[in-house]
Amino acid sequence: MKKSIRLEEKREEKLDEDGFLDILDNKQLLKKVLREGDKNSARPERGCRVTINLKTRLKGSDKLIDSHTGDKLQIFVGDYDTIHGIDLAIPLMHNGEIANVVIAPRFGYGSLGCEPDIPPDSTLDCIVELVDCEWMGEEIELPIEERLKIGTEKKNRGNFWHSREEYSISGQCYKRALDFLDVRDEEMQQRSEGSGESNLISKLIELKTTTYNNLAAVHLKTEAYDAALKAVNSALMLEERNVKALFRKGKILGILGEYGEAVDILRAALKFDPENKAIQVELSKLLSMRKKQLANEKVMYRRMLQLDKSNASKPSKFNSLLKWSVAAAGVATAVGVVAYYINQ
Fold this sequence. Notes:
Chitinase A, domain 3; peptidylprolyl isomerase; 11 helices; isomerase; transmembrane helix; alpha+beta; disordered N terminus
């Protein structure tokens, strides 16, 4: 507690003349308390689920941006459920606090903006109220309906960041979605028996497979091929006939130069979806590359065999020396025998 008080006092000393705290000491993220919260309440930490009321405007405008305004929004701190500036400001708030947060483009929607409401390179002027903060336990302990809901939201958020080509953030969202999409042993038993919540469990597994596929796509974009292969293998563990996972696995193996295995995987995918043009094109490309690889291997083996034959036909220096040594020894022996008989 003393440490947090000292930190708070230090922050208060940094308030500018307008009452704003320069959170990052670079004027790009400012926070001003409009209403004090309950200072006896613990501040949110990474992984906490918080409920906020949010009003968003462009800096210098009085008009609310409806698509980025809402009451009782639930987000997980540090999970990129919202823009980075809000994520950084919330851990500095107490329950019940209302704050004005001014966010430079770098910690908002950057050079892309968020059309149609937020133009590129926009500074955002937000009013944030921290309504509640909840410390979470193990994700798998949540009811399956809640896990399915949160997993879907995080997967969709990953899709949002992926569409903006922010692949690192997108991958983090997909990984967090997977945290909520684990299945308990008893739930797998219910699914196999068709009892209990088997329909919801099947939906959860289907969503988990899709999320692994999306994560593999992110790793492909960032050329993290081993991680991409691990993700598609996880998808295929859940659904061995998943065409998208088979296609991506074949593509990854092709990139890694494993043409033979890649061709087998793509042929298997084509059996399940014979009209899939993307698989047909990739398979044709890899067959051509495999043919070239085999031709190169034949040339290499032929050269190796010719080299072996050449070496076999040419006596080595050691063999020649050995032969001369034996011959010399034979001559010396013969001379010795002749000399013996002459002297007798």
